[in-house]
Amino acid sequence: MNIKNIKIAYVDEPPFYWTEKDKSVKGADIELIETVLRGIGVSSIAYELTTFEELLPGVQAGRWDMNVPIFVTDERAKNVAFSIPVWALGDGFVVHEGNPKHLTSYEAVAIRSDAKLGLIPGQVQVEKAKSSGVSDSQIVLFKDQQEVIVALLAGKIDAFAATAIGNNAIADANPGLISVPHENSKEDNVPVGAFSFNKNNHELLQAVNEQLRKYLGSSDHRKKMAKYGITATEIDSIVPNKH
Q1: Which residue of 37, 85, 93, 208 shows the fewest CB atoms closer than 10 Å?
Q2: How far is 9 from 51, CA to CA, in rounded Å?
Q3: pLDDT per residue over 169-180, tens digit each?
């Protein structure tokens, strides 16, 4: 591949991707893509911190070369090209310890008219909540994860919906909060996530996919992901021939 310099857009959502105090970028998906890009001869990797809503428009406009993995949907695939899947993740909530309103699913929120659910615009959880009966009046939107956690800790909302694994990281970092995985996270049709690219960036997409096929499910991949709480549960369904 002739592309030597790559710029990747990301948001702050541990354990997948985040900014350290020294401004370095870390996370499970960061470690994955750095391994993959080095494997295809990329010598310089730069990162662009953005908002979730700007990920797809930004890569479409050519402001960066690729995005960190997000959930693959038919709607998103109309605008960008996705790599092969790199994980499968179920949803869950972050709630206060004891889960006082017993919020264990989107349906459980829907039947509690006094329950407020924090969400981030553009993320798949918004549509999931609405399709499960959560009303607009129950939904409070925030620009990013940091903002929604502050609101949750302050009692302005009762729950925050995101991936169950990401929620574990939030709960670990914030005493008084716990992670509650949704029961439907155990279903076979758990949503998959992938890197995304400008639809015209065929060379980079093809090279990344070729390297991902070699690397995903390998012992090195599993060992690296395990450090972030990503296990066979999240990996095996996207690499069926390697488990």
Answers
A1: 85
A2: 9
A3: 999 999 999 999
- Distance (Å, whole) CA 198 – CA 205: 9
* Integer Cα distance of 126 and 128 in angstroms: 5
Tens of pLDDT, residues 128-187: 999 999 999 999 999 999 999 999 999 999 999 999 999 999 999 999 999 999 975 444
**75/86 Cα distance (integer angstroms):** 19
Q: What angle do CA 149, 150, 155 make, to 5 degrees?
A: 95
CB contact at 8 A, 93 and 118? no
Parallel/antiparallel/unpaired status of strands 5-10 and 44-49:
parallel
- 163 and 138 in contact (C-beta within 8 Å)? no
- The edge-to-edge listing of strands for the beta sheet with 117-119 is 139-141, 117-119, 159-163, 91-96, 177-181
- Pick 60 or 190 by higher pLDDT: 60
Cis check: omega of the bond before 85, within 30 degrees of 0: no
Check: CB of residue 161 under 8 Å from CB of residue 129: yes
Amino acid at site 177 = L
Alpha carbon distance 42, 211 (integer Å): 12
Q: Which residues lie closer than 8 Å to 151 by C-beta, 6 or more apart? A: 118, 140, 142, 157
Cα separation, 139 vs 141, in Å, equals: 6
